[in-house]
Amino acid sequence: MPHPAYSFSSSGDRLELRDPFLLRSADADLWNDRLYLQIDHRGQVVTSGWLNPDFTPYSLPQRAFYLRDNETGEIWSVPQGPVRAKPDEFLFSAGKSDIAWTVALGGIRCTVRAVVPVHDPVELWTVEVQNISARPRSLSLFSYLPFGKPSWLRNNTRYEADWHGVVFDFFPYYVDYRDYEKLRDGANTLFAASDTAPDAWMSCIADFVGHGTAERPDALLQDELPTADRWADAEAEAAAILQFNHLLAPGDTQRVQLIFGPAASPESGRALARQYLAPGGIDAALAKAEARYREYPAALEVATPDAEFDAFINHWLPRRSLMLARAMRFMSAPQGRNLLQDSMAGALIDPVSSRKWFLKFYSFQKQDGWLPHGMPLEPGASQLKINTVPHKDINSWGPAALTYYLNETGDHGILEEQIPFSDAPETTASLYHHVSRGLEWLLADRTARGLCRIGQGDWNDPLNMAGHEEKGESIWLSEALAFALDTWAPVCDSCGDIVRAAAFRKEADALRTAINTLAWDGEWYARGFTDAGQPFGSHHDDEGRIFLNAQSWAIISGAATPERAAACIDAVNQHLATPSGPMMLAPAYTRMRTDIGKLTQKSPGRLENGSVYSHAVTFYAYALYLARRSDDAYRTLRMLLSGAETNPVTRSGQLPLYIPNSYFGLPAGAKAGQSTRSANTGTAAWYYRAVVDCLFGLRSEAGGLRIDPQLPPGWDKVHATRRWRGGTFQVTIERLAGVSCMETRLDGVEIPDHIIKPPEPGTHHTVSVTLPLTSP
After folding, report:
1. Alpha-helix residue ranges (DSSP H) falling in 187-231
2. What region, left, alpha or beta, does residue 649 occupy, with left being phi > 0 and alpha being psi -120 to 50 degrees?
3. Catalytic-labelled residue, pool 342, 461, 521, 632
4. Which residues pair with 398 in a beta bridge?
5. CA distance to 153, 496, 513, 685, per residue, from 726 (Å)
6. Closest Cα partner for 228 from 292, 158, 163, 142?
7. Would the pTM of this model clear 0.85, i.e. be above it?
8. Regarding beta strands 612-613 and 585-586, do their DSSP bridges make them parallel or antiparallel, or are they unpaired?
9. What is the pLDDT of residues 381-419, one digit of tens each?
10. Structural domains of the chain in order of their starting residue, each with its CATH number
């Protein structure tokens, strides 16, 4: 049932919040390939930055437009913070390409809209002030677009009247004299400009606030801002604070448009302002931003009994996947595992970007097959410290991601692309051989017992002390390697590499045997073994007794027999279940264990130490589908999306526009269930894969599009549009009385094997799938 305070539009591509006090911080985001802005209904910025080449902040965390009634002195703001006056009318409207705030108070309606254009790293703002009262009104509008204090060396602000621009020059702080020339040629300018000449301006935030507060700045108590032509202070924060005075007759509307952001130089900022603030410039930028999503149609569109789920699958999940595939989580030196999994999602929305990243990624591989944790994709990119740690799992992700791309696109030519090695740039090998070498490196990096070493961490980075002596073992990575080998062996066959394919299958079987012999703990699988040979994630532990990933991947890898898979699922339900989904582990650690690592230092219920870690939950949902537990799988997917019956927005504190990195787990006490509001995670790829491949069962394989839906109870009829290899398939899946087994028809012709062969590009087809009323 729709919530009275928020809802998606009928098309699902906008979400509207009508109560400013429902959530403390209801956020949405805007992006292009170079800039990211995550901002809430009060104008508080959760995250913002641009690639320069590293992700670089360009502002303080607030955007605001103050309004002042010049007759009464009353002050309010749009968005609804920082003043937070109780409005007569409120609307926070988040679209895929714009975000809008509307506040009406005392007969004045103000709508503010933010847009990020397709290419340039800037914010575009439109402010419309309308007099909806029956009398003339004298108002002043004040922009508050804060640059902050990006340097301790030099911060200069000046106003250039010919383009109504506020220019903020700075020089980044440095110590080593050799950095001077590199920094000198960098983008050391921030700017803001308006399409209308302001009546006054200022830039010093401290002077603006004075003895007041952000809710009631001293400068707004004066008729005009204390304007100065220029201002310089390396110790103080600055903003573009522009005053616009309006006399509005009843029914009149005044509009001001602004641009804000970083620039390569003052001249570049001026050019951007003139481009976007020209008549119709921002409207044209919005139209292009909206057109971008039409250029990248989603691989799946659905119509089910769950309208909110439909909106997420049709609009917001593809949007997130497109952003991740193109911008790599706004990291110029991303983690390899993230790049590969995000590119897996990209296969469904932007395969061209995925192809580019696959080829770039494997150029960091050494001749022996080793891959680093992180890799700088752009010249001058900085590595995060964590990316320099040699985590063991990086080579395990390539087969799943690349095979998914191959099956979705049919682009087998990518396997023959020649790629150099990082330690021998003059030596090249095909992408196929790079992936195969990576698997062989993992096979060689096993203990005498046949299990993968955990080293300083696998997918779970903070397990950083379990194997730093190179004796500890990872059950999860052993499971992941078995899955990778099984996934890649058919590719080996298709390349004529029969001997390698057979060897990979044999090694996968050996891994499964070792896992079942050494890791089965009676009711679930242990997570690993320390350097001292002690199991962890075992019933012998008083903390960290069971880990979710070891159970999920035992099923995904085929290590778990049906009986053991059922036991794992029962154990997850008993020990890890929460209203938002299963926790990462339980019980949470409350004290440091130096034989496991920094995971045990994290607050109980936070992140890897017992949160509902969304990425891991989607692994589990995928495993449930493989175990044919369709009801449990859908329920797991659904509760992960804020707004679900068990995970309402008032508990999560987040609108259902994205799935966060995690929700706090039960050990977090009063914070349990709250979203971390970190929107860019690997969750999107596996959620997308689970929905496309398993829930709707429209799964691309080497031989064609396999039809194998697993609808939850209560879904007796659904519709879907599946785009695959240039063809479009209109699919109806329906449960009918009298049907004893699944039947599939393509354009009215029955397909006994339920596999649709690749279509002619540009063709349209109908697919009818009938299921028994009761699933087997």
Report:
1. 205-209
2. alpha
3. 461
4. none
5. 55, 27, 42, 21
6. 158
7. yes
8. unpaired
9. 888 888 899 999 999 999 999 999 999 999 999 999 999
10. 26-294 (2.70.98.40), 696-772 (2.60.420.10)
